Amino acid sequence: MFAFQNKKKLLRLCCATLKQRPFLEALLEEPDVADLLRDDAINGNSELAWIVLYEFLLGSEGLKASKRILSAVGQRSSAIHRQRDALVSSGRGPVGEDEAASVPATIPRYARVNTLKTDLSTVLKQLTDDGYEIVDCSSKRMTRSKYREVVGGLDEHHVMVDGDIPDLLVFAAGTQLHTSWMVDEGHLILQDKASCLPATCLQPEPGSHVFDVCAAPGMKTSHLAALLQNNGKIWSIDKTKDRVDTMKGLLERSGVAISSVFCGDFLRTDIYDKKFSKVRYALVDPPCSGSGIIKRMDHITDEAPTDSYRLNSLGNLQAMILKHALKLPNLERLVYSTCSLYERENEAVIDEVLQSEAAEHFELIKALPAWKHRGRKGFPFARMCLRSSPAKDLTNGFFVAVFQRKSALANGE
C-alpha cells in the first residue's frame, strides 16, 4: 500500500485522481487492465486501482507503492499502456492541466478575524507585509451585482473586508491559507460567510448566556464567543462524541474561555435545569441535508440528491429541536439556521413551529435587514427570513430565521 506522512499531499493525490476519473474508469474497461482488480494486492478496490493507475501513468514522481502493487501493475504494464494509447487516439485520454483545474469555484475564500486573539487592523497589516494588496470598498455603497463584480476581480494577492459581516476577510477563490501561521494559531478562522450569518443575526450582548444547540464542530461557538468578547457563558451541546472532541480542540485553539462543552442529545436535555436559567440567547443549527454546501468535487462524484423520505425525517427532527429550544424559560432571542436549500428544512419548519404552542410568545423579526436575498415566496413570513446562495451572494447556501420574544419587543429590545 501507500505510506503518506503528508496529509496535504495525500489530499492533492486524491483530488487529482478524481479529476481523471472518467479516463481511469475507461482504462479499466479493457479486460486485461481490469484484471488488476482481481489481484490480491488490489483485492477488488476500484478506488485504490484508480490511484495506482493515476500514479503509474500521470504521477509526477511515478508509482511509489509496495512490492506487491508494483508487481501487479508491472505484470499488466503493456495492457495499461495499450489501452491508454487507444483512449488518447479516440479523444478519451486524460484531461489536461487547464481542464483538470476547472473545478467549480463560484465562491471566494473567506476568513474571519478571531478578535479573541487579535484585531482587524493587526491582521490587515500582517497581510500587507506578506504582499497582499487591500481592496478598499469602504467608501462605496455597493449593490449585490457590484459586489460580485469586485469579488470576481480579486486575484491571489488581493484581500478585502466584507461589507456585511464585521471582521470577515474576502480572498480570491482558491487562495491557499491553510499553511498560514495566523490560521495555525487561531488568529484567522477559515469560515464561509454564510456560516457567519447565524451568530451575526443573534448578536448576543457581552456578559449574557447563550445556548449553542448542535454546536459541533464549533465554528459558530467561536464566533459567538468573539461577539461576547469572552464575557458571559456559552452552553455548547452536540450528540456525536467525535465531533465534540473536534469542537473542544477548535475552541481551545481559538482562545474561547467561556464555553461549557458537553456531549448529549438536546431533545433529552432538561432545559428547565437551574444552570440554564440565565440563557437569553440560543442558536439552533440542527442536522440537515447539507444541500447548500458547495463541494468542489460534486461534478466528479456520485452523490445523489436527498430523497423525500430523508427530507421529511430531517424536517421533523429540526422542528422538534427548535420547539424544544424555544421552551428555554428566559429565552429572548433565537436563531434557527441550516446549510440547506430545501424548503422542507427551512420555511416549512418555521411555518410548523409558528403554528405550535412552543412559539406562542415569539415572533419573527427580520434577519439582517440590509440583506436582499429573503425567504421563499408563498410563506407570509418570507421577507423576515434570510437566504444565501452561491449565485446571488457568493456564499454557500444558507437559511436563517430569527425568533424574538414578544415581551422583549414590547420593551424596545
TrEMBL record:
GO terms for molecular function: RNA binding; RNA methyltransferase activity. It holds the Pfam family NSUN5_fdxn-like. GO terms for cellular component: nucleolus. GO terms for biological process: rRNA base methylation. It comes from the Eukaryota. S-adenosyl-L-methionine binds at residues 238, 265, 285. Keywords: Methyltransferase, RNA-binding, S-adenosyl-L-methionine, Transferase. The active site is at 339 (nucleophile). Residues 99-406 form the SAM-dependent MTase RsmB/NOP-type domain. InterPro entries: MeTrfase_RsmB-F_NOP2_cat, MeTrfase_RsmB-F_NOP2_dom, NSUN5_7_fdxn-like, RCMT, SAM-dependent_MTases_sf. PANTHER family: 28S RRNA (CYTOSINE-C(5))-METHYLTRANSFERASE, NOP2 YEAST -RELATED NOL1/NOP2/FMU SUN DOMAIN-CONTAINING. Belongs to the class I-like SAM-binding methyltransferase superfamily. RsmB/NOP family. This is SAM-dependent MTase RsmB/NOP-type domain-containing protein. It comes from Plectus sambesii.
